[in-house]
Amino acid sequence: MPAEIWRRNSKKTSKLLIRDKEITAIAVDAKWETADVNVNNNYWPARPIKSRFELYKDKKDDMMRDYNKKLKSLDEEDKESTDS
């Protein structure tokens, strides 16, 4: 749904979905492309969304692990980006 829909009614909007199968889950803006104050209400059925602090705590990266990893040259990065 385009953002222009908010001009008509800023409180709520609706969309009719007709499907052959039962809808088991819905994700609104799953890629987080829009500015949303409350991302907790973007999923049905509801799912817990971790805060930035919880995500930081769960991050178990070892900074020294990648210390000896060979860095890529600019040519290698350009090649990878064109291959994708």
Strand order of the largest sheet: 1-2
Main sheet characteristics: 2 strands, antiparallel
Approximately how much helix is present in the residues?
25-40%
Strand content: under 5%
Q: Between the first and last Cα atoms, what is the distance in angstroms?
A: 29 Å
Detail the poorly predicted runs: none
User: What structural class should be given to the helix and strand makeup?
Assistant: mainly alpha
The coarse overall form would be elongated
SSE ordering: HEEHH
Number of spatially distinct domains: 1
* Average pLDDT rating: 77
Instruction: Count the beta strands.
Output: 2
Q: Please, how many helices? A: 3
Rounded to the nearest angstrom, the radius of gyration is 21 Å
Blueprint of the fold:
Blueprint: H1 5-8, E1 26-27, E2 43-44, H2 52-58, H3 74-83
Antiparallel strand pairs: 1-2
